[in-house]
Amino acid sequence: MKIQCSIRSAFIEIVCYLYVILFVYAAVSKIIDFQNFQAQIGQSPLLSIYAGIISYGVLLFEIILAVLLCFQRFRLGGLYGAFTLMILFTVYIFIILNYSSDIPCSCGGILEKMGWKEHFIFNCCFVLLALLAILFYPGSRSDSVAKLSNPGKKLVVMLSISVLSIAALTVMYGSSERRMHQDNPFIRKYVTGYAERSGEMKLHTASLYFAGTDNTKLYLGDSRAPLYIFEVDTMLKSRKHHVIQLENDKLPFTRIQVQVKGKNFYVYDGTVPVIFKGSISDWKAKIVMQPNDIYFTNALATSENEIIFKQYQSGNQRTVIGSIDLNERNAVRYRDDILQKQIDGLFDVDGTMLYNKSSESFIYLYYYRNQFTVTNHKLRLSHRWNTIDTNRIAGIKTSYDRISGKRQLSSPGHVINKIAATYDNLLLVNSTARGRFEADRMWEIASIIDVYDFAEGEYLFSFYIYNGQEAKLRDMMPFNSNLFVLVGHELQRYKINTTFNNIRK
Question: Are 420 and 408 in contact (CB under 8 A)?
């Protein structure tokens, strides 16, 4: 009997000090890199909404339990606390493994290097150790040293703890997902494996931009040499240079843009109200819209003979969206209900124009506020949606220059939605707005891409595109299940895992 008691006492002692080592090590690791620990909790689909209180609570609970387990008088209470905490950790990992996408581990230290399955087994072992230590724990001094005090009652307590832990985490998962999608506290949900880098090509200049595709190849324009086109195959193995020949190259151009759409290409410069169109077979362009009074700040070819443009009307001090039908003698139609003026009607509505071919939708994404507008191909308004950040008002200040007679930015605003692209039913946005619990390190080495279902106005998830040594993402274009990006002097290809496109709450 005494030998049995000694073995049980030794076992309890070993379990207690194993837990002390585990909790002290985990707590110290979290303290050393607390910002990263909090950021990883913030990225959890179960805990994101509660990241603030949980990050401090878990840390404090681990330290308290480590202290309790060191003293004989408080050891049983410490074992119940350790059992409860490990049950919560284990249930959390079970939900992650079975009901959620992969997210970063927030354990700290060498424990962070474990995979999720290894973590689950590790936690189960410690749960079992705590359970046995509690069952073996001796009763009060009036009891025999070898006699267990109410083992059945202990089992009921531990079963209740387990059930309550499962219920608590299930409720947290449901409420966190609901608030992530509806209440919008601006906490991103990061996923890994959506875009995997699969190739790159060195470029001769960092002034290139994506001009478009012909369904087999990529075409890049050069802002410094606007009539030069760079052709690249999708495997990033071959390249060609083309020179555009304009029917009239004597016009006073200031900012030429080239767009390739299928077998055609378009050349326009809104400061000169002329549009050129040509074939990529010979790269010769003729004027298809003669000089008139249709000046514009941006243009986008949506079909072979239709151009959508953005125009500032100084008379009523507002920017409108219009369309030109090249088949109907350049018939022009204006829509003044698409863009919403907040401050000046010029800079506050500045943004990116996109066209989604599969749904025939026009998308306008504002630079300085958390909003994008969706219309059909006839520019009839469908929806106004918000991005997940909280910048509802454009943070800019403008003034009137009496000498030039033009309005100008007196206090440039911070661009929130920097770069965007669309494919299938998705809108990809390179956001510069930092969410809660996001580590400084990731903002230094990567660009953040938020993914939305633009038909439903729903934020889905976010992922990283890693920057170059001294350069950040400056343009992106989805094409044939790939995402091509320009970073510094490099063209990179990322393979898109389309299974993520159906992620919902």
Answer: no
Tokens encoding 122: 């590790």
Going by C-alpha positions, the residue among 371, 372, 354, 350 that lies closest to residue 362 is 354
173-178-181 Cα angle (round to 5) = 125
- On the CB side of 209, CA atoms within 13 Å amount to 16
Smallest CA-to-CA distance from 56 within 47, 68, 45 is with 47
Q: Tokens standing for 282? A: 């010979």
* Helices 2-32/116-136 angle, 10° precision: 140
Contact 156, 30 (CB under 8 A): no
* Mean predicted confidence (pLDDT) in 229-241: 94
Same domain, 35 and 106: yes
pTM: 0.71
Beta bridge partners, 308, equal 300, 323
Residue-wise pLDDT tens digits, 151-182: 778 888 888 888 888 888 778 776 665 555 44
The answer on 226 and 106 residing in a single domain is no
Quick one: which H or E segment has residue 232?
A: strand 228-233
Tell whether 163 and 247 lie within a shared domain. no
Among the candidates 161, 183, 205, a domain finishes at 183
CATH number at residue 50: 1.20.1440
CA pair distance 41, 59, nearest whole angstrom: 12
Instruction: State whether 230 and 151 are in the same domain.
Output: no
Residue where a domain terminates, one of 124, 153, 183: 183
**Of 236, 239, 376, nearest in space to 306 by CA:** 376
Do residues 311 and 372 share a domain? yes
The backbone torsions φ and ψ at residue 436, rounded to the nearest 5 degrees and listed phi first, read -70, 145
The residues near 107 (Cβ < 8 Å, ≥ 6 apart) are 26, 29, 114, 119
Which residues span the domain enclosing 91? 2-183
Asked if the structure places residue 365 within a domain, the reply is yes
Residues 439, 340: Cα–Cα separation, whole Å: 34
**Residue 352 forms beta bridges with which residues?**
365
Q: Spell out where 171-224 has E strands.
A: 195-202, 208-213, 217-222
- Residue 148 is predicted with a pLDDT of 41
Q: How confident is the model at residue 486 (pLDDT cuts 50, 70, 90)?
A: very high
What pLDDT score was predicted for residue 499?
78
Do the beta carbons of residue 102 and residue 192 sit within 8 Å? yes
Is 258 part of any domain? yes
| In a shared domain, residues 241 and 174 | no
User: Nearest CA to 432 among 384, 385, 389, 475?
Assistant: 389
